[in-house]
Amino acid sequence: MAKEITSREENYSQWYNDIVKKAGLADNSAVRGCMVIKPYGYAIWEKMRDQLDKMFKETGHVNAYFPLFVPKSLFEAEEKNAEGFAKECAVVTHYRLKNDPLQKGILSVDPEAKLEEELVVRPTSEAIIWNTYRDWIQSYRDLPILINQWANVVRWEMRTRPFLRTAEFLWQEGHTAHATKEEAIREARQMHDVYAEFAEQFMAMPVIKGFKTENERFAGADDTFTIEALMQDGKALQAGTSHFLGQNFAKAFHVTFSNEKNENEFVWATSWGVSTRLIGGLIMTHSDDDGLVLPPRLAPIQVVIVPIPRPEPLLLEKAEQIRKALQDQGISVKIDVDDTKRPGFKFAEYEMKGVPVRLGLGMRDLENNVIEVARRDTREKASVSLDTVVSHVADLLEEIQQNLFQRAINFRNEHMTEVNDFATFKEVLESKGGFLSCHWDGTSETEEKIKEETKATIRCIPIDAPEEAGVCVYSGRPSSRRVIFAKAY
Amino acid sequence: MAKEITSREENYSQWYNDIVKKAGLADNSAVRGCMVIKPYGYAIWEKMRDQLDKMFKETGHVNAYFPLFVPKSLFEAEEKNAEGFAKECAVVTHYRLKNDPLQKGILSVDPEAKLEEELVVRPTSEAIIWNTYRDWIQSYRDLPILINQWANVVRWEMRTRPFLRTAEFLWQEGHTAHATKEEAIREARQMHDVYAEFAEQFMAMPVIKGFKTENERFAGADDTFTIEALMQDGKALQAGTSHFLGQNFAKAFHVTFSNEKNENEFVWATSWGVSTRLIGGLIMTHSDDDGLVLPPRLAPIQVVIVPIPRPEPLLLEKAEQIRKALQDQGISVKIDVDDTKRPGFKFAEYEMKGVPVRLGLGMRDLENNVIEVARRDTREKASVSLDTVVSHVADLLEEIQQNLFQRAINFRNEHMTEVNDFATFKEVLESKGGFLSCHWDGTSETEEKIKEETKATIRCIPIDAPEEAGVCVYSGRPSSRRVIFAKAY
Question: Is residue B382 situated within a structural domain?
């Protein structure tokens, strides 16, 4: 029968690892902190990537590719950025291995092949890209540059978890260059909106849109916009960030342009990225103790048809008709033709893999012109006429997408607590978790003290937070709007 | 007017570099031997990737992702493979930079963050993948594994050229695992066929399908199948390879399976790859002294519409109608709305960029219900009725695709010379270049001597070479079939 997984209540962290492993999403590798993304996990990433890529292109962006390596001297150029990433950089120091003269088959680093300058494996690409933009930008006519890159990056994290925090991960990073501050801010906000739309409409994962405090900003940014999602265990997940970089990189890399008045100015910049971390967010937003639950819009297999009890020719013939009709509506369907496993085993497998809709077809069904339709999200089953099953399934996929989103919104709303004093803050954080909406006095000092005492950080200052007079939950000093605290991944 | 480029006759190598730069395909970077793939070059790669990915999926493959880094001990495991790549490996030795205590803003490698085991940046992924397959394969029921990966790889080449040979490049690498030798060979040959079909039907680049001599095989392969194309300067380009790896990696990584009789056997393997090098092949197959020439099936912009002399509203309105109608047929169209440049300048730009079809529309044309249609491949122009322009252009794109392919076949055939003695061999190689079809005695010794004396190598033993008695062009010893020699990129 089904592969057993740890229940969420028993151990949420183990439940997550079980899902990743047993749904076939990722595996550990021989390299510390690096995962293997297995075909099923990668298929989800392909769905995400294709949709995001479409949205980036619709907003005028093009893709390009910049080198994996950043020479150390370039990496240093923007000081805050360098400082932010220096402690977690993989560094290439040599370009050759040689045979060990004493041990056959053993290779060692060739000391004669030491690089004159070390190369940092990119943790992010602002440095290498802005060093290139210097050559591409002379006049305002060369602006804006609206480039995105799909790439791997490396950050040598000490504690890693599949998808959520890995030494190497896949992501996209947009890097844009603009003639004016206003245009750059507009761009950063636009991509912030794109991320929120993707998270909500495709991942069915509600997010709070806000900006980061100075403490939590991207190293080198003047402003960081973020989307923050809430996981089932009450912890927040930073799901995507879009940065207004001001002129910091332009100044570090001497990137100027002559404006319409023929005056030289520094270029304005943004960068924005989401990564395979989103798959972790997807898992922890929807899945349950029976396995993965996927929103239909990102499910590699949207519908599976299982002939019962085994793949007889008559059942396969009908299944193929249904598959074809669903495929014509753009729905991806798998017919299970395996005749070595029993239906119950298969059902558990597809539940584990989060296939949104399962159709079970037996000879008796065929005689009665019906088919069993089971939905993954609510586990409900219904017998549906074969005459209408195609439109029924198409509607049901849409309904599941909306249901998952609504369920996640409800959960998020239930775990959004207005808190006005620090005792309650600590109590709610420990008992219920979730987002704490509180007044804060605006100082890094208070922010850090709260973090020290509770491990909660300011996830964001919500963009739509209304002006509201109040006093800081920690210091009692005056505050004019609430911010969102939470413990975070 | 047009940006000037060096003519092919004057300096083929400089012509190539000029095209890469002036068509906006790639740029040098701050990292030795690594290029920046610019948006237009990357758009061609996206077209290639999407088509290849489709063909891989149609032949039953799925994508996955394996780590960038290979621990040195794994890298060593398959000895021939390790030996083949050891001399060109980028090696990560440290995982942290630290602030230089004496110089503010200067970072240095932190000696305390030395890795216990060095990490090789993958030059190819057999080692890391077969180390993973060991955990995935127990029984014949786990086979075959048909996985492909799109990734970046690094080979520290001493002499680099954009696309053709770069320290970092983008590619796909298929890695499959099979229960029998026959099935693995069938897979390797199937992907060889897929590559040939892609090269000919999409790149319009004719290829010779053959297998490599032992000298020229992939390090670690039992057999390497290759597609070899001929560039305009008479040199060959190895455009894609598919390897039958035997049980070499299974033995090195102890990957066994229990067969239907419950006996343990080593798994059989293939790997196959093409890379951004194909863009170099595309350039050198079709382009001319006015710039890039692209086959329509891989052109990011297939049709450009230029309002003449400037983008008047009436002209734009008509252009938009045409664009829409062409787009409905799946044709990508750009309307040039720039009003700061003259038509002659624009024409030269689009020729430089290799846009297959250019439509020029003036007010007089509009009155006469015609439009000027210019094709990039032959430079012919025709005045076509606006009533039929859409179907005319659709047909013309197909005709250009076929014409480019036929032109390249003719060139290749004209540069395929049967040679039967070594004096002629040297003479033809120097005067005319191209492929030399010759008898060879089958020894590495002869192969190496010919290489030393002429720089020509055996590109492949063609798969369809007929049995034919002859004598080796160099040694005079008997031979039973001809092989293909050429100087190569």
Answer: yes
From A286, A315, A337, give the residue that closes a domain: A286
pLDDT value of residue A105? 84
What CA–CA distance (Å, rounded) separates A191 from A52?
A: 11
* Domain interval for residue B368: 301-402
* One domain, residues B26 and B153: yes
CATH number of the domain where residue B316 is located: 3.40.50.800
pLDDT value at position B100?
Answer: 85
The reply to whether the predicted model has a pTM over 0.95 is: yes
What amino acid occupies position B84? G
The neighbour count for residue B219, using CB atoms within 10 Å, is: 19
User: Which own/partner contact pairs does B363-370 have at CB distance under 8 Å and 24+ positions apart?
Assistant: B363/B312, B363/B314, B363/B315, B365/B308, B366/B314, B366/B315, B366/B318
Chain B within 8 Å of A114 (Cβ-Cβ)?
A: no
Q: Rounded to whole angstroms, how far apart are CA atoms B39 and B276?
A: 14
A264 and A352 inside one domain: no
Residue B174 located in a structural domain: yes
- Residue of B37, B105, B170 with shortest CB distance to A79: B105
Write down the residue that tokens 């209540």 correspond to.
A9
Could you read off the pLDDT of A280-309 as tens digits, one per residue? Answer: 999 999 999 999 999 999 999 999 999 999
- Which residue in this structure is represented by tokens 């004096």? B423
Question: How far B122 CA sits from the closest chain A CA (Å)?
Answer: 12
- CATH number for the domain spanning A434: value is 3.30.110.30
CB B436 within 8 A of CB B417: yes
Q: Cα separation of A182 and A350, whole Å?
A: 49
Residue A331 CA, chain-centre distance (Å), reads 24
| Average pLDDT value for residue range B9-35 | 97
Chain B contact for A160 (CB, 8 A cutoff):
no
pLDDT number for residue A473 = 97
Q: CB distance B95–A74 less than 8 Å? A: no
Q: Would residue A114 count as lying in a domain? A: no
Question: Hey, is the C-beta of A159 within 8 angstroms of any chain B C-beta?
Answer: no
Q: In total, how many domains does chain A have?
A: 3
Dump pLDDT digits (tens) for B311-325. Answer: 999 999 999 999 999
Q: How far is CA A244 from the centre of its chain?
A: 20
Examine the domain organization and report whether B219 and B244 are in the same domain.
Answer: yes
User: Do B257 and B333 sit in the same domain of this protein?
Assistant: no
Quote the tokens at residue A342. Answer: 């029993």
SS3 call for B225: strand
Q: Which residue of B has its CA nearest to A50?
A: B50
Per-residue model confidence as pLDDT tens digits over B207-235: 999 999 999 999 999 999 999 999 999 99
Q: Which of A264, A286, A308 lies at the terminal end of a domain, its last residue?
A: A286
Nearest to B338 by CA among B327, B353, B325, B349: B349
Q: Are A337 and A280 members of one domain?
A: no
Per the domain annotation, does B312 fall within a domain? yes
A192 token code pair: 């912030």
Same domain, B225 and B353: no
Q: Which of A30, A83, A98 sits opposite B74 (nearest CB)?
A: A30
- What's the distance, Cα to Cα, between the start and end of chain A in Å? 33
Domain CATH number, residue A281: 3.30.930.10
Q: Looking at the structure, do residues B22 and B147 belong to the same domain, yes or no?
A: yes
pLDDT tens across B145-177, in order?
999 999 999 999 989 999 999 999 999 999 999
pLDDT, mean over chain A: 96
What tens digit of pLDDT does each residue of B71-115 get?
999 999 999 999 999 999 999 999 999 998 888 889 999 999 999
- Over residues A434-463, the mean pLDDT reads 97
Is the predicted pLDDT of residue B2 greater than 90, yes or no?
A: no
| pLDDT at B103 (0 to 100) | 85
A276 and A383 housed in the same domain: no
For residue A309, is the peptide bond before it cis, meaning its omega torsion is within 30 degrees of 0? yes
Q: Per the CB < 8 Å rule, is A170 touching B42?
A: no
